[in-house]
Design goal:
The complex is a heterodimer of chains A (115) and B (248).
Chain A (H helix, E strand, L loop, with lengths): L10 E2 L1 H11 L12 E3 L11 H25 L18 H21 L1
Chain B lengths: L2 H5 L11 E5 L5 H13 L3 E3 L11 H8 L4 E8 L3 E8 L5 E10 L17 E4 L7 H14 L14 E8 L2 E10 L13 E4 L3 E12 L2 E7 L6 H20 L1
Parallel strand pairs in B: 1-2, 1-3, 6-7
Antiparallel strand pairs in B: 3-4, 4-5, 5-10, 7-8, 8-9, 8-10, 10-11
The chains are: A mainly alpha (115), B alpha+beta (248).
Chain lengths: 115, 248
């Protein structure tokens, strides 16, 4: 009586998908510096519910991308590292970072107290 | 890409992208903050006011055109709790409809990273995107939308964060990390790259891919997708069943 309907039609029109991708594709002759996209050579195979290992896998993927991008940027002579005397507006405001810091300090103090 | 570029031969070809970002009515504070985060992270985004009607999505390509945008990121809120994201190339399509879950915004205090406002992020895709045809198309569209073009007006000249997209459990997981090139404990030691998460984070479940912009033939549909409303009703039903069994 109350069976979940699972007979859903799957549509996967690969021919159309490929055609669409080819029409919107960026010019392959564009240098890498135009998109900054990096592909990771590995697929992620971890248990979805295992938070720690999952986040670690994402971290590794991002780290691989950061390292590849730095070598690529060097070969394209694109500035990568921010010089220490370059100041500009950040994504998170100083007030927000200050709240973060005070929270971290509070946590550390709490741990010390419990010891 | 442009006719002008072919005339002036020596001129370099450029990646020109602009993204229109807008939402439907009825977004909650969390959804609104997520949109604000995306706006601060992506300097080539043009934010517009909420779209009045959920049934008239065909207006979106026109709005995008009026704002000189060739991409649209539209957030659709349903029942004040479900959030859908449309990632579309306007005016000719394709468009991808995704269900957004597990949203954490940058305001949360657990993520300690920070980066320059408007710096160009590296886009990182895992290999699973290249294994299916819909994955390849999604990767292409996301490269257009989330990749900051070098000539974006407000872009900063240095690179200090990575946006990662990973496919796991048939869902696309989004993370944003800051790149730290010096160990804060040993500022004079050898440079060692490490990452700190900045936020936001969210998980996207692909639902459908349409050929046109906000319409047209379906070229992909995810058979595993269960609408959040039916998932909730199933939970309620199970609860009711349990009660009935106990009573008998």
């Amino acid at each position: 009586e109350d069976v979940v309907p699972t007979q859903r039609v799957e549509i996967d029109n690969e021919v159309a998908l490929r055609r669409i991708r080819e029409t919107i594709q960026l010019d392959p002759s564009l240098p890498w510096t135009e998109t900054l996209a990096v592909s990771c050579p590995q697929t992620i195979e971890v248990d979805v519910d295992d938070d720690l290992n999952r986040e670690l896998a994402f971290y590794k993927q991002a780290l691989h991308a950061a390292n590849t991008a730095r070598t690529l940027a060097a070969s394209h002579s694109l500035p990568f590292t921010r010089p220490s005397d370059y100041f500009a507006e950040m994504v998170k405001s100083d007030a927000h970072m200050e709240r973060l810091r005070s929270r971290l300090l509070d946590e550390r103090a709490g741990i010390k107290k419990s010891e | 890409m442009d006719a002008d570029d072919e005339v002036q031969q020596p001129k370099q070809k450029r990646n020109k992208q602009r993204v229109l970002l807008l939402s439907s009515r009825g977004v909650t504070h969390r959804m609104r903050h997520l949109m604000n985060d995306l706006e601060t992270l992506l300097p080539h985004v043009k934010k517009d006011s909420k779209l009045d009607s959920k049934s008239q999505l065909h207006l979106l390509p026109e709005i995008a055109d009026l704002n000189n945008c060739n991409n649209t990121l539209y957030f659709e809120a349903r029942r004040h709790e479900d959030l859908y994201m449309w990632a579309a190339k306007t005016p000719n399509g394709p468009s991808i409809k995704l269900h957004v879950q597990n949203v954490h915004t940058m305001d949360e205090l657990k993520m300690t990273g920070n980066c320059l406002k408007g710096s160009r992020g590296i886009l990182s895709f895992d290999k699973a995107f290249d294994e299916t045809e819909w994955g390849k198309l999604t990767k292409e569209v996301f490269t257009h939308i989330f990749g900051v073009p070098p000539l974006a007006r407000k872009a900063k000249p240095f690179i200090d964060h990575v946006l990662t997209f990973s496919i796991l459990d048939n869902k696309i997981w989004f993370r944003n990390f800051q790149i730290l090139e010096k160990d804060p404990l040993q500022p004079n030691g050898p440079p060692q790259t490490s990452l700190v998460e900045i936020g936001p984070r969210f998980v996207l479940t692909p639902i459908r891919i349409f050929e046109g912009a906000f319409g047209g033939a379906t070229v992909y549909s995810n058979p595993e997708f269960v609408t959040p409303a039916s998932a909730r009703s199933l939970v309620r039903q199970n609860k009711g069943d349990r009660y009935r069994q106990r009573k008998d």
